[in-house]
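Per your request, structure below.
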């Protein structure tokens, strides 16, 4: 696999994933708060987090080519605390170093901002930014509240007060009133506010005992099937153990509807596009995705032990992000749900798009919270999976809808996959799906880091100060 062709001189003001948003009540994420953006970006590239599964947010930052080759590796962080590995981590210092990035990822969602809101991404350790300093105080406040009031349980999070906006709510609103934080100020773009997700309990910590609607649901009148029944009916519906176990590879090709980066030099709202996408899977748990963007190839993968993504930044996934990419890499979605979860049970029936569904929930053993599966009552097929990206500061939900199941060599495979998270959404449509065509192992391995690109307006060689992951 070649390294991505991302010219160093490429200038993409911002690139994020999202909407069809307004329809879905999504507002564009505030990817770059202009007051904090370096006035003249010597190089503007998009930096992104987990792709595919997570509806990667592509963020505009000034990102030195020199840094691209130097994303921290999980193996270098192993056994180190954040305080030891990073230069200037004061409050989160005792966490494992691998937990820092997911926590930063969470903050951007809880506040609806991008990394540059608090950081000069050439110098993540700098405390020059007043919002970074506020955020550090806020983290302390959050821990103080949770420790003193909630016996150390993570009950109050950034999201409790911020609800996807950079300013915490400090006054009650009357019906129909807009929270002040949603009014775009002249120096910031609109925030990502996802009102519907606000009510989702998985934005908070895992509560297996009342995971849906705060336990307000009425008990089902009809007797429900057991979780075991539903999970084995699903396994039968997708082809059965024999077919799944004899399947070796799955190759899916098609297009993905997503927000596209603006061409170099073009400002303004992003437009939806339909770039070509290829997804490769190899049983039991290797997966890789390649999206052909005008500026180059965006990729994400999991090789059976480590996860990675590549755009302008080529980095490894860690902490809660790694768990999410692991879920995504399963050859058949949720095939190992029983093995990977505890407290599995069935909730009262629900409806999705007019279809009656059974809902199975379970607490993920990896600590990422309560996961939910929605099975079509008629076909037994999985039509929705809700998982969480967890971090030490909080978690956010991510939903994958599976539709248009096709028969592929005895397996049922969803030809339409819709991903939704607080960061936006994507719709994959695969028109070519093949099982058991040979796929070389190299596809799943993280490509070698790109050497620092040639000039072409290359930035001054800023020192990779923090060694920080820029997403
Ligand atoms: C709302 C403000 C805020 C946002 C947004 C934010 N951070 Fe941070 N970041 C902080 C704070 C505060 C610290 C220091 C934490 C501490 O001292 O315990 C920090 C520390 C870091 C560090 C450690 C730097 C060092 O060497 O000391 C890295 C790396 C980092 N952030 C990366 C990111 C990335 C990548 C993003 C975007 C995904 C991001 N941050 C978004 C507030 C923020
Ligand atoms: C108990 C409620 C509460 C919690 C929890 C909370 N915040 Fe805040 N936050 C606020 C309020 C209220 C403000 C606005 C203060 C003001 O306007 O001076 C604010 C302001 C901020 C600001 C400054 C924004 C600006 O434009 O001045 C940042 C950055 C911030 N919070 C980050 C965080 C982060 C990160 C977390 C989680 C670690 C968090 N907050 C948790 C209530 C909260």
């Amino acid at each position: 696999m070649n390294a991505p062709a991302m010219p160093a001189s490429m200038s993409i003001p911002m690139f994020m994933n999202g909407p069809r948003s307004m329809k879905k009540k999504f507002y564009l994420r505030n990817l770059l708060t202009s007051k904090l953006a370096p006035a003249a970006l010597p190089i503007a590239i998009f930096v992104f987090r987990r792709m595919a599964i997570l509806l990667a947010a592509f963020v505009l930052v000034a990102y030195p080519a020199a840094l691209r080759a130097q994303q921290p590796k999980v193996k270098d962080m192993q056994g180190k605390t954040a305080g030891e590995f990073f230069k200037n981590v004061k409050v989160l210092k005792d966490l494992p170093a691998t937990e820092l990035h997911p926590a930063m990822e969470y903050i951007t969602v809880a506040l609806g901002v991008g990394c540059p809101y608090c950081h000069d991404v050439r110098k993540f350790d700098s405390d020059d930014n007043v919002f970074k300093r506020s955020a550090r105080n806020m983290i302390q406040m959050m821990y103080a509240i949770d420790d003193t009031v909630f016996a150390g349980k993570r009950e109050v999070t950034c999201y409790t007060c911020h609800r996807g906006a950079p300013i915490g709510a400090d006054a009650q609103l009357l019906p129909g009133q807009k929270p002040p934080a949603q009014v775009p100020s002249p120096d910031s773009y609109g925030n990502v506010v996802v009102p519907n997700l606000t009510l989702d309990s998985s934005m908070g910590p895992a509560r297996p005992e009342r995971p849906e609607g705060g336990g307000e649901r009425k008990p089902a009148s009809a007797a429900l099937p057991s979780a075991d029944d539903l999970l084995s009916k699903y396994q039968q519906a997708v082809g059965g153990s024999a077919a799944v176990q004899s399947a070796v590879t799955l190759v899916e090709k098609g297009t993905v509807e997503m927000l596209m980066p603006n061409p170099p030099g073009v400002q303004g709202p992003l437009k939806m596009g339909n770039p070509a996408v290829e997804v490769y899977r190899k049983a039991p748990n290797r997966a890789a995705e390649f999206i052909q963007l005008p500026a180059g190839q965006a990729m994400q993968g999991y090789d059976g032990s480590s996860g990675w993504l590549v755009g302008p930044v080529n980095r490894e996934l860690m902490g809660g992000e790694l768990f999410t990419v692991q879920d995504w890499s399963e050859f058949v979605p949720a095939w190992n749900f029983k093995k990977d979860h505890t407290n599995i049970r069935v909730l009262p029936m629900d409806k999705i798009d007019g279809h009656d569904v059974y809902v199975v929930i379970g607490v993920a053993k990896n600590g990422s919270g309560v996961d939910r599966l929605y099975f079509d009552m008629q076909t037994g097929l999985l039509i929705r999976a809700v998982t969480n990206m967890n971090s030490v500061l909080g978690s956010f939900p991510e939903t994958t809808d599976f539709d248009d199941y096709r028969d592929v060599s005895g397996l049922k495979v969803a030809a339409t996959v819709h991903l939704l998270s607080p960061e936006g959404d994507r719709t994959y449509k695969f028109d070519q799906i093949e099982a058991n065509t040979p796929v070389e192992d190299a596809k799943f391995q993280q490509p070698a880091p790109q050497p620092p690109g040639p000039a072409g307006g290359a930035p001054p060689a800023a020192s990779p100060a923090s060694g920080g992951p820029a997403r």
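The pocket of heme C (ligand 2) is lined by residues 107, 111, 131, 134-135, 138-139, 142, 156, 158, 160-162, 166-168, 170, 393 (CB under 6 Å).

Regards,
D.
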